[in-house]
C-alpha cells in the first residue's frame, strides 16, 4: 500500500511500543493505585504472571492475590496468625495450634503424639494424656496417684520409700550403698557393702 507501512515494519513498531511500555512501568517514579494494585512503581511486586499488587493492602499466596497486607499463607488463602491457624493447608478460625494436620484449641484439648484428647489441663506421658491431679508419669508409663516421683520406670512417694540407682526400697530418709538402701542410724556402708552398726571403713575391710 502506497504511503503506508508493510506488515513486517508494523510488527516491529508494535514490539518497540510494547518494550517502551514495560520500561515505563518499571522505571517510572510515580505510583498510581486502582483497588490496591500498583501499576506504576519503581520496584513492582508480582503475583503469578505479571499481576501487580501492593503488599501493604494485599498478600500473594501461590499466585493468588488475597485481601490483607503482609499476612501469612495457607495454601492459596491469606490469614492473620493471631486469629487463625493453618494445619496442613487447612485454615481454622480462633485456634492456637495444630495436632498433626488437625487444628485444635488448647484450652479444651490436649495433643499428644498427633492425637487429640479432651481436656485442656492434661499432660502427655509418651503418646497418651493423663490428668496430673490424679496420676503420675514415669518414662511413658502412667500410675495412679498424683505428685509421685520416678525410680526408673516406677512411681513412688518419697515419704515412704528410697530410690537407689533405679531400685526402690522401703523406708524414708535412707541412704544408698550401691543399689541398696540402708538406715545410717543402724548400718554403715563400706565400698558398696552394708555392715551392721556404726563402724569405720579402713583398708580393704570394715
UniProtKB/TrEMBL annotation:
Cite the Galaxin-like repeats domain residue spans from the record.
98-194
**Classification via Pfam families:** Galaxin_repeat
In terms of superkingdom, the source organism counts as: Eukaryota
Give UniProt keywords alphabetically.
Answer: Signal
Q: Where is the signal peptide, in residue numbers?
A: 1-32
Q: Which PANTHER family match?
A: PROTEIN CBG12054-RELATED (PTHR34490)
Question: What protein name applies here?
Answer: Galaxin-2
Question: Which lineage?
Answer: Eukaryota, Metazoa, Spiralia, Lophotrochozoa, Brachiopoda
Q: Which gene specifies this protein's sequence?
A: LOC106166254
